[in-house]
Amino acid sequence: MASKATTINPDEAAHFGKLAADWWNPQGSSAMLHRLNPVRLGYIRAAINAHWHGDEHAMRPLSGKRALDVGCGAGLLCEPLARLGARVTGLDAAPENIAAARSHATRQGLAIDYRTGGIETLDEGGFDLVTSMEVIEHVADPQSFVDGLARALAPDGLMILSTPNRTVLSRLALITLGEGLGQIPRGTHDWNKFLTPQELGDMLAKAGLEVTDVTGLSVSPARGFILSDNMAVNYLMRARRKG
User: Fold this and answer.
1) CA nearest 204: which of 140, 147, 164, 120?
2) Distance CA 45, CA 35 (A)
3) Residue 111, domain member (yes or no)
4) What is the CATH number of the domain that holds 89?
5) 20 to 30 Å CA-CA from 108: which of 1, 82, 162, 166?
């Protein structure tokens, strides 16, 4: 049987692999992700509560559930998901990232199943929660990537994605200023690969999923990154199986 085409862009994997050793440094090359993570986790926690109608004060709302984070880097999201009670699998195209993720998780006493590869290498499904944050804009084939995420999702599962929007403002904020001023490593983004909410929603629909929420991720001068109705730069999207 012919092997599935890879969704991995080798240049992108190499770019992020070079950042692996510095991933957990909140003042390093991944500083922007460290600042983003609390806001993303707040959104994820609210989505978990809404999807499974759980106790919003529970410490481990994912207890007994399986979570998959695709494009996990060195585990910045996987570790909080594990602390929320999930049995976590982290998948990333760069072996350097997976090595850094395993090392950090071991030091934290967390048992996380880290694997190197693209979504097409995953030979199992049934994940209650599937996440992929700031990844789809870096893959070789976005629709195949979304199809793979959908295959991994359990019938009653929850999917959460985040990605930059393709707007004039996102080009200014993420590339001209973000990369130009050194807040984001140069070469991280290709504006032409950014997806609008409509485009990503259409991809999810083709994969048999329906969008249940879209929320903007913006910057407040006083508070830093916040969730908002403004999707001009970045947004988070929640989906589940149709029907």
Assistant:
1) 147
2) 17
3) yes
4) 3.40.50.150
5) 162
